């Protein structure tokens, strides 16, 4: 097991939702599992006026996100955990002199023996990232001569290639690339990491993992919820920026990448960047038209309950052209994947919440059981990222009796069957990795930029293209009716579940 050195976690934006919803529960899980170092404190900071006691009450003792976890905990355990939290008010702005912050950091460091090791977690709006990094540097809080300093930044990392590059350059003026940890919570999911293990620790999949045996690859990321209370943010972002540019392209890179030479962070990250750089960038209007579909959810009736359409959500422009559904077909220009189509879709207000990768294998080169109809039922490897985390292999077996009738059978593995194993939550795993200085599951600057390079022309086409369409789909369905048009031949998306409404209300919105 790797060692977690004594350290301090300084959270910027500590009064925000992410801190109480994700970070503190993750820290509590690490505390329970004995994974926090002996000397460890958290210093929250933001523009809210709070005392240490107010902060502890708010994010620990009275937190709705810890209620269930505290049910079986002893009182002195909860108090001990809460006492690790401190708070420092920054005043009216994040753009101030950090001298008083520095004083507090130094005091805590000497009182609690955290050895000068500091992890800064930026959980603020992204426009403040550079300002905070600069002010930390100006206050001498980035120097590593007395303990390491690391910086974790949340998504969105940029709004386009240009802004992502500017942000990278801005941060790198004050922190070295090796100190910067760009978090993508999908990489913290056990099943996403398992993509690497499935591919590179088995000898049965890798020989087939290429254009010779794989017909196409499909990735679905569906959410049943709408934009909830984040309409204001989402309307400026959309599905492509919110999910595809980061989480889904990270999954794509793990499927596409070549075997790394080892398991070191840089060895894996080098291969992921190469993979992202080999995605064929779509530049022609016709390709962009034929290979992309965008759509918005519309009002509908789901099991007797009225559901709002996207344009009626709070914070959303009533004439918004922001997509809540994005489906993209693309190719990968390298030796392994030439001519193999990839189909990736992500959407809100779908019938269910599911993320899965489906590897469709080619039919056997020479089919001797043609009459059995098995050629319509290709072999599939389904990697279920969430929920029901696991792997399913679909293959043909003989139906007992005369002749050679073939049916498809399933061979499956579910993580839930590992009774003894406690699967770590994404933030828990990622925080612990950063605390130990392991950046394998964090995105490097060139990875983020390569992903934007692929996404930028699609965004540009959707904004300025001549014949671009925005379709509508009723909430609770698998997207616009023409979504299957994207799939080559007689293909269609694998929809893991039925529509929740019979609403035929599909249309072209603009
Ligand atoms: C976030 C997006 O990054 O991921 C949200 O901003 C989305 O819009 C969420 O709902 C999905 O994460 P998960 O882990 O629930 O699939």
What does this 3D model show about the protein?
The chain is α/β, with parallel strands linked by helices. It has 2 domains: 7-154, NAD(P)-binding Rossmann-like Domain (Rossmann fold, 3-Layer(aba) Sandwich); 187-487, Dihydrodipicolinate Reductase, domain 2. It has 14 helices and 18 strands. The chain has helices at 17-32, 52-61, 67-70, 75-82, 99-112, 129-138, 161-172, 190-200, 231-235, 239-256, 265-277, 285-291, 426-435, 445-464; strands at 7-12, 40-46, 85-89, 118-122, 149-153, 180-182, 214-222, 292-298, 300-302, 305-307, 325-330, 342-347, 354-361, 380-386, 390-398, 406-414, 471-474, 507-508. The strands form 3 sheets. It has a 10-stranded mixed sheet with strand order 16-15-14-13-7-12-11-8-17-18. A 6-stranded parallel sheet has the order 3-2-1-4-5-6. A two-stranded antiparallel ribbon has the order 9-10. It is globular. It starts with 6 loop residues before the first strand and ends with a strand. The site of 6-O-phosphono-beta-D-glucopyranose has 2 residues, from loops. 6-O-phosphono-beta-D-glucopyranose is lined by residues 223, 242.
